[in-house]
Records
---
Amino acid sequence: MADDGEQIDERAGSAGAEAGPAAAPGGSAGPDSGTAGPPAVRVQGLWKKFGEQVAVSGIDLTLPAGRFIGLVGPNGAGKTTTLSMVTGLLRPDAGLVEIGGHDVWRDPVAVKSRIGVLPEGLRLFERLSGRELLGYIGRLRGLPGDEVDKRAGQLLDVLDLSGSQNKLVVDYSTGMRKKIGLAAALLHNPEILFLDEPFEGVDPVSAQTIRGVLERYTASGATVIFSSHVMELVESLCDWVAVIAAGRIRADGPLAQVRGTAPSLQDAFLELVGASDRGAGRELDWLGGGGAR
Amino acid sequence: MSTGSAAAHPAAAPSLTSVFVRLKLSLLRNGLRQSTGRTVAYVASIAVGLVFAAGAVLGLIALRGNAHVGALVVLLTGILTLGWAVMPLFFPAGDETLDPTRLVMLPLRPRPLIVSLLVASLVGIGPVVTFALVAGSVIAVAEGPVAAAVGVLAVVLVVLVCVSLARAVATASVRLLTSRRGRDLAVLSGLFIAIGAQGVNIAAQKLGRPDGLSVLEPLGDVLRWVPPASAISAVDDAGHGAYGRAAVGLSLTAVVLVLLLWWWQRTLTALMTSPDSSTLQAVEKDSGRQSGSGDRGPARLLPGGRTGTVMLRTLRYAWRDPKSKMSWATALGVGLLVPVVSSVQGNGSIYTAFSASALLGLQMYNQFGQDTSAFWMVASTISTPRDAYQELRARALTLALVAVPYVTLVVIGTAALIGPWSSFLEVYGLSLALLGALLATGALSSALFPYSIPSEGNKNVAPGQGAIAWFSLFGGLLIGAGLSLPLLALTIWLHVAGLHGLLWVLLPVGVVYGAGVAELGLRVAAPRVARRLPEILTAVSKG
């Protein structure tokens, strides 16, 4: 476990650099922590086409380490495609992706041990029980068996899954699946966590649990990058935001900077993606309580 | 006919029946709007259905006057009805309008709903084929105007009984079919279909003999009183002047139709007014699967590290995942069946024991397709060709854990049943070599030609990937056989040169050769897996 010591050192470094508050000015030029080693993620000229459809068209993005980062955009904006390419699950047509200064495609050994992933739309090994799934993925990651079982037990407790730990994942609810997926992503104590729509279809109680775990995790200096289209959530959780629409980055930087003068992130977002003045149609004049039909 | 009665009970402004009929037509039409491959398959299945129906009708008409045609059409109707009864259990997703739980939120009364659903179910290729077969059966036995009139009535009754039987069964079993356990069973139903096909095969062989149709007579005597076949025998009776028997036959079927509709309405009402499994399941407590770290019992015997972890997962999947279970059961069953059947038929040879190696070796193919999109969990833990090698080797070892003892037993069994024992060592050695060759080609084809296995339904290949699947399986089998050629050549040489005393050499040589070629295959495949992880993930995520 020589790796662990290294991880802790790096974290301490980035946590120190993060002393400056989230609203630090001049964030758009890149990470404001010029002194603290490489950014968590650096993406250059990322492209992906599916047949004729361009899903991601030339994304350049630098995300600083040690932050809680939200990747926001409407449905079909390319969030999932981008995250899949960044985490090495989908090969880009063109472009460079670096995680912690390591090229995702040239140096998978350095990258895969440093990241945890919770993808959207991909299955888990659902015919294992929750506990068996964690035992499986932990051992695949090369952790010693005793350590895996200890960590799995604690994660199941914290995520409120202990009662269902011996139930097959195929019988889990959406919220439970997200939580067991999160546990699987956290098990090897990654430096950077990528979560695709971690709160989609999750009940409020599970959402609060997930939130608590993530906040505790970032407080220790780790990086969380998650995608969502729920602006209130992003606004309350994140200190750094990247807005993506139609396969391009529309804005990125510290939350306050992206929000600018708009009253909320929601308003700023609607303006950025060009959907702000689509009024609630006057055509629906028949709609209203009381009158039947 | 029933359209009128639906109009008499208007449930909403437009007639409910026409809404359902149009829904059904839209669903049929939308079947044509999918990808080109699916459209072709869809049109082809309709064409095959129509050609089959036309052929069957012509055949039935040609049999008119045959002494045993009465028994044949009664049996045909019985089989047809059985088909309709079990169809919703095997293909629960076959007809979306069949699922009444989709209608729960709509303000619909049971009686008009049933009439509308019944009329809508008459639209489709299945009812058309049924109608053709029943009409053909009636034409085959109807003699005289009275029989013709009874025949028209019989056709209507039989088709209605078939359709409402399917609907009623589907409604009664919807709880089961929408639960996870029920869907698992539906996947395993492929086994029953395979067994049923074997039965049909044997039956067809018997009927194909001269005067084979007479075999049907005793069965026909019973079935002629069982609705809805009784309506068909009524046509026969009416033609021979037995009007009393005809009336009883027809009314039996009519009574069954009424009973079916009543049962259907009852279950439908119950289904739509009581809480479903999604509500009940929340209260269900932990299913008490053996807990602990998974290091207990026989699992302890597995090696540590990635190898043991992957083996344990694969073994658990072989038992718990219906698709894996099905493919294991098929391989084990058919591998045993080939030598047994050929020994029963008396023309067997000890070389039929190779089927065990061949079928189990093919389990190595498309390893990652068996993971479905959960393969991302494997992909995210493979960084080097070494990781990929360990992953592949663990899967090959799991397979060998079952295959080696199994092949041993089958070869021993075949030697005992068919003989001669003198060939035992030779065949055993060759079998193990073939197994090793298939493990090697299977690993390589898993890396190069992965494809999705849809986790539900009976299909084992995702639409559009059929060619890859066939190519990798059959190409792999050929190449696997090709890789065993050196050993085969040695065998033939030993035989030709008359060195029968040295044939035992094939066992150690086969073991070493099999292990060596498998190892080589894994080593060649591993770097390719490591390089192609995203491509494999994309290919296996289509299900």
Note: Chain B has two domains: 16-275, 301-540.
---
Amino acid sequence: MCAADLLPSNFSHIYVEEDALGYPMADEVLKHFPGSIIVRIKHYKDVFNRPGQDSAVQSRSKNLILAVNRGRKIFDASPVCQDFGYGKFYYVQSAMNCVFNCDYCFLKGMYGTSNIVIFVNTDEYIKECEDKLKEGPMYLCASYDTDITALSSICSWQRVWEELALHNRDLTIELRTKSVVNNAVPCNNLIYAFTLSPGLIIKEYEKNTPSLEKRIESVNKAIDSGAKVRLCFDPIIYIRDYEVCYNDFADTIIRNIDIQKVKDISIGTFRISSDYLLNLRKGSPDSPAVLFPFDRENGFCVYPKDLKDRMIGVLKDRFEGAGFGSKLYIF
Amino acid sequence: MIYVFAAINCEIAPLKQLESDDLKIILTGIGKVNAAFALGRTFPGKNTRSEHNNDVIINIGTCGASNLHGLFLVNKITDESTGRDYYPDMLRVKGFPEAHLITVDRVKTDPEPFTLYDMEASAIFMAGSKIISPDRMFFIKVVSDNGNVEGVTEEGVSNMMNEYLPSIKSLIDQILAGLDHSTASPCYDDINQKLHSSASMQVQVCELMDFARSIGIDGSELFEQEGAGLVSSRKEGKEVIARVRSRLTSF
């Protein structure tokens, strides 16, 4: 018997803030886990922010925390994110952490835990969003500190943001995911941003995520339904024979997705805050994706410039060649 | 190493048979101050987290409860005097009933229902969490009384611990089987000596060696191929590092 056999499955324990009990979303989540042990807590930070947690061990058996977000809910997005030309570019923190286990994920670097927080006070989020909209149109990433679509089988946050976009034309919402989107909503100001990676990268570095085939199928369903779709080839990860790998990947995308129906494509290489990289390396001590000897630039770890340009060039050239140049965003 | 902490002799006596090279049993004495002191005495010295990556703390003992019986694994500890809550990660053990434990300063004569009461756990968690991650701390409690301790004898406690010894042993076996033993990062002294490495060069060597290992390349050989053995100054050492970096980032 190996260690993994002894670790119970995800969400064996659900930590619930006393204040969160009674919120419809808390009830909705809990009904999915009748066998889980419920531990009542005063504040989510008492569990989420404990010092010295071993997030690598926790990642094999993640637990869930249901909480009320009493503080700010909408934040300015990080400068390392693409703003796609939108001036007012924000993200909303409706959940923290992810069910997936990607070696390179910045969440692993940012949070000292693999446990997942879902905030349940949806009405207060909607109000803060509507208040902010009074200042003018805004672009909101609703799947930023999490993969909200991947959580949609247990909570309705994705539907909350879809509804909000449908009723507020000045609000453009991006739902970024590596998961499969069910029933994408056609709406001009609602963007389903699918992160797509080569099969080899998914197998090696994006553990527990859907295969490239399933993601492509989901992209096509969303396009067919009339939804706005963005393809994100970001982060590109350096591997041996990356040129062959990403050229094959571009072939697969061009062959299987009608890219003329895609809103836009973003391309970017892996980059991360130097502080976060230290934590990532602790959590994935054998992963070349995070052990690569990166250059340091203004507090961020990046691939050496010539390598970065070559890696981006592989995909950029292919999609420009396919007549997609004007809708490419490079980071 | 597994460190088992228990408060009184009659709790410890039955556990003695579990003692081994990998499992040490420590008597704390009753109460939070004694418990915290016992931890400090057990882990003297610098005490960084990395020193204790392979260590486990288990607190075993009896407790009071009004309507619970048997052995419990604790998933939440409340320190009654401060009101603070502590949460061990419940990751490595399954199949045991769990409960909330309140650590009190004096015997609780009117316990809340479905709650355990002891006098050490919060201090052990607090002191232990300075150096041990919460997935490596376990609190195992056997209910000995309902708040009225008049009928509780040393012999009775020993008998009770003996009765639950198979469960305790099974629990410790699960903990042992679930442990990953991490090894400390090598410091690559040999290469650094050859390169006349400064502190920042040592960090770079370590980074390059770790990356080389992760992609199945012998980093030491790579440094040798790039002339590590011929270096006579720090400047030349830096040039070797640059060449190794260049090769590794274009493999």
Note: Chain B has nine helices and eight strands.
---
Amino acid sequence: MRALRQIFAVTLLNLKNLPQRLGSSVVAVVGVAAVVLVFAAVLSMARGFERTMVTAGAEDTAIIMRSGATSEMSSGFGGDQVLVIASAPGLLKDGDTPVLSAELFVIVDVKKKSTNTDANVPFRGVQASAFDVRRDVRITQGRMFETGKNEILVGRAAQSEFQGLDVGSTIRFGKTDWTIVGAFEAGGSVSESELWTDVRVLQSAYRRGNSFQTVRVKLESPESLDILESSLKDDPRIDPDVMSEREFYSSQSEQVTQFIKLVGYPLTILMSVGAIFGALNSMYSSISVRGKEIATLRALGFGPIPVLVSTIVESTLLALAGGIVGGALAFVVFNGFQVSTLNFASFSQVVFNFAVTPDLLLEGLRVAVIIGVVGGLFPAIRAARLPVAQALREL
Amino acid sequence: MAEVLARLEGVSRTYQKGKEKVEVLHNLDLQIPTGDFVAIMGPSGSGKTTLLNLLGGLDRPTSGTIHVGGAELTAMSNSQLSHWRSTNIGFIFQFYNLLPVLTAQKNVELPLLLTSFSSKERAERAAIALDIVGLADRARHYPRELSGGQEQRVAIARAIVSDPSLLLCDEPTGDLDRETADEILKLMQILNREHGKTIVMVTHDAQAAQYANRTLHCDKGTLEAREAA
Amino acid sequence: MKYFGLIWHNIWRKKIRTSLTILSILVAFLLFALLSALGYAFKYGEESADAERLIVIDKVSLINLLPIAYQNQIASIAGVHSATHATWFGGYYQDPKNQFGQFPVDPHEYFAMYPEFKMPEEQFDAWVKNRTGAVVGKDIADAFGWQVGDRIPIQSTIWTAKSGEKTWEFDIEGIFANEEPRGNTSMLLFHYDYFDEARAFGQGLVGWYIVRVDAGADPVQVQNAIDAEFENSRNQTESAPEAQFAAAFAKQYGNIALIVSLVLGAVFFTLLLVSGNTMSQSVRERISELAVLKTLGFSDRAVLGIVLSESVLIMLMGGLLGVGIGVIAVRGVAASAGAFLPGFHFSPTAMAMSLLLMVGAGVVAGIFPALNAMRLSIIDALARA
């Protein structure tokens, strides 16, 4: 208890003369703030991308692709094979008809607003049942496309990211004109990066006959996935890969998030090392300024431990202040900031928002505390070992 | 009568202290012949140091003219003054003012950096200067490894290394014990008599002033000569 | 230069402080080296482009295929020196994570189009003779430990053979290098003739064309002529110089350069504060010494120069150490992952940039303390001491 009181008293004294060494303290705080800012900003891209991809995937939706296909684009089924899937067990039924959407997935060049260069925008042919398979899709503007017409529904994110996708405008792909008739939301998921049209129209525009690329089905329950998979694997008419939509999207997001993390974490570690040097500098100069004061306290009977602990506490408080500033700045500046990138797994653009999440901020503060403690440790040891008599004489 | 090395004519110096104007020197005329060793005494605030600063071109008078060794200091620009100081004036301070990061040898070489001497010549000259002050064996020591008297000797070596004609000393023995102070003062006497240096020394120590040829008393901005005891 | 000793000793006045400052600078420049290598990797396609090469793709999307018949039409357009084609095979080796480029091509045409690719003649001839033969770039061969004579399975995510097989086997007949320093060789090339005959669908279609423009011809004119040629065809085309094509593709990933600059901005802002603080502390501690220097006759400008030199020298020490370690680290990363991140390297431009940054940051960090030192009044400073 007495030790605690001493620590408190000494820490308070330390903080009181902080203004005398404002320069190096501010430098230490800014150093930590920069680390946490960069950490939160870079990793919030991974978080945002992951969130966009993963919210798209439901556990009780299965996606069926040709075996060996790594993306929707490289998959393919004939119309007869889709019928095989429709009659498989485990599917959720609406009356007698299974909730199933056979889709076509192609890519069209649309210019990105930010760069004014062509980007690979996903263009999906869907059946009306696509809205039953994806429950959170909602038309927010305009109307549904009519079957058999060159009409497009555009995802909200695609609309804000790419040029010429306003409702009512027409867009030309090759020699075909398409009319944008509506826009939709999909809970912030990757679907919002896409353009949708009637699958039959897309089939004829791309001369695909009656073929599709992927089939999405609603399952009776997430557990039905195994039943569906084993039934389809046993069927000689079809050679599919079956996985839950969630699994599919998390595998699709892996490459990008791994890349960001692979860059982000070493970056944070290196910057933290730099910030530790800054914190060390600040604390060493704090001790040299306070040398006489520390010696006086020791002469009065304060122990070395309170001196040691109080130095670490001061350094940690400074780092924490930096962490809070950096985290807040990251949140204010970057959270929700919309960008798009090419997801190589699907070879198409994914529009997503930076997500500065609470767990990311907490992780940032943890980094700040580590910097503070490490940066305070050695100076603290030196402070505690300061020879009292000599320090009193020198100053 | 030897020729005049330094001549002050009608020199006044006022400082602005807050809203008040303080006149430290008032219409001062002074001549210092070549080869002289002058002690200037007086209470603090009497303008001793100001006089020294004016002679060294560190400060400018509010009015009046100052000539030192044929140069009119009052007509020179700051950078001209810097250059002039480096060859004509040696300063010796109460607290020695050696650079703690340099050895004795390098401290003495410092003024020579402003000349065109090669590093070899610089080292030779610094060695000679250190020899004159009797510290040849301490050349590689840092100031913190020297006693106060030794530090002041290094400072003197630094002051004479570029062979200036005028040495300006501000309380050179103010921080030394009697015995050491006497050694330093004897050294200064030697510099004055054997090496022909003109010396102006500010001091408040009457015993120190006895080493000088004459003593001037500075009070309320005017100087009054008294016979050396 | 004769002030060097003075400057050097002043720098080390407080050893801990200076060391820590130098270490902070080291980290900043290490980051600079790594991040500029990363930025360069994304710009690499643009940097290595040949000004006389055009890329012709389908106007709707890069993924749409073009008829092989276009080749002769393109070749006959005025200003076109030669044309060849390539197709994205979309395969991987053993694990879907091991993706790299494989292209069915015409051996003679392709190597004529890319003269920077070099390989022993006998290996090239052996490849031409072997229908299922392939040649691989040095980087990818090193990454997977392939050697001439190996038979390797490549699993395509797009192309099925008529046999229903998606795994295609190739005999490695040669390994080619890129004459350009650090040029990309992360690819496998095999016979288009074999590919076209063996694939289950898509006969007579290729991914894109590569066109060499006649020396002296205006690439823009040729580009427009090609697109005009196919204006009324089923597949319209979009032609662009190789560099522009690569740049536009890189932009699909987002503004990597901006992100890199923002991160570096934060790093260097902090760095300036750190070294600026060190310099101003250092000047504050030795005001009386600076006054002494001036008393001895050092001019204002010399004092300014001394303090600035200290700042720049500290920055150079930390910076050169950081860049040095950075170059080693970049080489290490390139050696282990270069096949999948071609162009990850510290370019001469970045080197020059880093030197500029060191001097610039040194001046900026030192200028205010140096000005304070320069403006120092001797009398005040001596009186304070």
Note: Chain C touches chain B through 26 residues (CB under 8 Å).
